[in-house]
């Protein structure tokens, strides 16, 4: 670069001048009669030697100052451009490097301040434990939560309970657990997450402590309430066709010439639905468990015919269109599947009950690409695209008189079987609920071999 060429030419000039001065001094000294010339030559040699040393030393001094600036983080240092050919270029380069380092230092400082403020304002209490078993409260939430102890040792935190003490004393891979904390307002449960990070080459354990007693209490009460509402909803849904069938049977048997075949069919259907309802209620006895399917193989056609009879008993003004593959075989829990489809058919009927010509269709078929599919569709208003995910949430409903439970139950039954359920648009003009019986991951199989 330019600095190298100028520095080299300057060094060559000074070196050449020094060589010439040394030759002149040598000639003057050997003549023996040129005292003044000898003195001048000696002065020239000395002056040129000093200039050569300064020429080299000036560069070394600037570079040394640059390295000292790096060492002591003095990024505001600037370099003098004077002092000879080429040093302006070197000074510009060193000053540019210092400005870049200063800008990077400002950026890192601002980023560090942001991270410190972010950590300090986190609503979750953060604690760190170093290799000497000293505990540091890393943010405001930690200082507000743990304010009953004195000292910074792990043992000083015993006042908050042995469970927290064990978490602070333990080291190892990341972990998460719920522990009781002894706080001024009483014992509360908290989620404690722990992990190990490196600080200056030394391992430091970091704990995040989040009291969740209030949320757990609210969730527990909500779960109990939801369970009662779900069971009430499902029992009433199942009792409606059972009551209708019982009344129909009583009418048939009370006629002068009772139709025993129809009465027998109604009683058999009534018995199956009562048994299915009993098994369904039994499956919900445990609060924390989804209904556990008991899959078996059965033909789709008679299963669909029974659903049609149940639908017609409850919805006299609706004509249910049933499209079924006579050869289709399903492997599922028939009671849970019936419960799911009763909910979906009832939703479809309710969506179309104000229409002059309501249409509800149930189809059970094998799709070449998707496998066995059960579809319930109608010609009602449909479900808006923005709400198609939310309708599966408990108690979410688009109807003023709806409970928002039926679709959630349907999804639970589908998930328990390992199926997939989705909402789309029907060619009838309304909503289409499609249940894909091919397991998403594991689960039971359908229309094929037993798992």
Automatic annotation (TrEMBL):
Keyword Membrane: yes
Catalytic activity: ATP + protein L-histidine = ADP + protein N-phospho-L-histidine
PROSITE patterns: HIS_KIN
Regions that span the bilayer: 7-28, 34-53
Origin: domain of life: Bacteria
Top-rank EC class of the record's enzyme: transferase
Pfam families, per database record: HATPase_c (PF02518)
GO BP field: phosphorelay signal transduction system
Gene Ontology molecular function: protein histidine kinase activity
Keywords from the named record: Kinase, Membrane, Phosphoprotein, Transferase, Transmembrane, Transmembrane helix
Transferase listed as a keyword: yes
EC numbers for this chain: 2.7.13.3
Domain Histidine kinase as annotated: residue spans: 230-441
Predominant subcellular localization, coarse grouping: membrane
Location within or outside the cell: Membrane
InterPro entries (alphabetical): HATPase_C_sf, HATPase_dom, His_kinase_dom, Sig_transdc_His_kin-like_C, TCS_sensor_his_kinase
Any one GO cellular component localisation term in the record: plasma membrane
The name this protein goes by in its record: histidine kinase
Organism: Sphingomonas aerophila
Classification of source organism: Bacteria, Pseudomonadati, Pseudomonadota, Alphaproteobacteria, Sphingomonadales
């Amino acid at each position: 670069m330019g600095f190298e060429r100028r520095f080299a030419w300057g060094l060559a000039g000074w070196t050449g001048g020094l060589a010439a001065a040394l030759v002149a001094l040598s000639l003057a000294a050997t003549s023996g009669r040129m005292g003044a010339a000898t003195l001048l030559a000696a002065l020239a040699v000395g002056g040129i030697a000093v200039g050569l040393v300064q020429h080299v030393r000036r560069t070394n001094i600037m570079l040394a100052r640059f390295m000292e600036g790096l060492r002591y983080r003095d990024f505001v240092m600037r370099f003098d451009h004077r002092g000879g050919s080429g040093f302006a270029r070197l000074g510009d380069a060193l000053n540019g490097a210092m400005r870049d380092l200063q800008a990077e230092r400002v950026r890192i400082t601002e980023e560090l301040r942001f991270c410190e403020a972010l950590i300090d304002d986190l609503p979750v209490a953060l604690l760190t434990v170093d290799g000497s078993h000293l505990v540091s409260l890393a943010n405001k939430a930690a200082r507000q939560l743990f304010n009953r102890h004195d000292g910074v040792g792990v043992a000083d935190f015993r006042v908050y309970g042995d469970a927290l003490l064990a978490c602070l004393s333990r080291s190892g891979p990341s972990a998460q657990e719920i522990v009781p904390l002894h706080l001024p307002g009483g014992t509360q449960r908290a989620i404690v997450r722990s992990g190990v990070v490196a600080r200056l080459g030394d391992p430091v354990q970091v704990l995040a402590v989040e009291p969740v007693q209030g949320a757990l209490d609210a969730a527990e009460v909500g779960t109990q309430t939801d369970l009662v509402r779900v069971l009430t909803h499902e029992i009433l849904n199942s009792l409606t066709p059972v009551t209708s069938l019982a009344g129909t049977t009583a009418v048939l048997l009370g006629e002068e010439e009772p139709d025993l075949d129809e009465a027998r069919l109604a009683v058999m259907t009534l018995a199956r639905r009562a048994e299915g309802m009993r098994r369904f209620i039994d499956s919900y006895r445990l609060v924390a468990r989804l209904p556990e399917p008991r899959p078996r193989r059965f033909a789709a056609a008679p299963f669909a015919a029974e659903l049609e009879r149940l639908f017609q008993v409850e919805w006299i003004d609706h004509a249910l269109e049933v499209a079924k593959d006579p050869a289709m075989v399903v492997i599922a829990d028939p009671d849970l599947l019936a419960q799911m489809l009763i909910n979906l058919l009832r939703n479809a009927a309710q969506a179309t009950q104000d229409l002059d010509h309501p249409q509800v269709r149930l189809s059970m078929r094998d799709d070449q690409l998707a496998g066995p599919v059960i579809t319930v569709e109608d010609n009602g208003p449909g479900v808006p695209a923005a709400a198609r995910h939310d309708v599966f949430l408990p108690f979410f409903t688009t109807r003023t008189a709806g409970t928002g439970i039926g679709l959630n139950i349907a999804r639970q039954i589908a998930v328990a079987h390992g199926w997939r359920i989705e909402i789309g648009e029907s060619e009838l003009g309304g909503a289409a609920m499609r249940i894909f019986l091919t397991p998403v991951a594991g689960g039971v199989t359908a229309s094929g071999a037993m798992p």
